[in-house]
Amino acid sequence: MEKLYTAEVTATGGRRGHITSSDGVIDMPLSLPEGLGGEKGKSNPEQLFAAGYAACFQSALLVVAGKHHERLDPASTVTAHVDLNKNSDGAYGLSVKLAVDLKGMDKEKAKQYVDEAHTICPYSIGVQGNIDVELEIV
After folding, report:
1. Is the pTM of this model over 0.85?
2. Closest C-alpha to 113, from 80, 75, 69, 83
3. Which of 15, 38, 55, 123 is the most buried (most CB within 10 A)?
C-alpha cells in the first residue's frame, strides 16, 4: 500500500489534557464529555473521531457519485454519532451511527451510494470488525 499522508498529533494529559498537531493547525485542550464530568467548551476524543469520520465518509460519497457520473447536492450531509460505551466487564468501546442525508436523492439510490461509500471510506475500512457502524439514510 502506498502511503499518501501522515497526520501527526501529540497528546499530553489524556482526556483532560491537550493535543497539538505537528503543523500547528490543531492546538486545543481536551476534556471528558460534559455529561461525564468534563468541562463545557472543550472537545473530546469522541467528537474528534466523529468529525473525521463524517468528513471522510462525505468524501467517499463524492467519489461514489463521481463514479456514477453524478454530483451530490452541495447541501447533502453526513452526521456521525460516536458513542462511548462500557461493557459489563468494565472495558470501554465505541459504536457509530452515520446519518446520511443525500438531498434530492431517492432512498433506494441513496442506500446504494451509502453502501458503496462504506466499502471505500478509510474510516469504515479501519473500524471494520472492531466497531459497530450503523448506516442511516435520512
Report:
1. yes
2. 69
3. 123
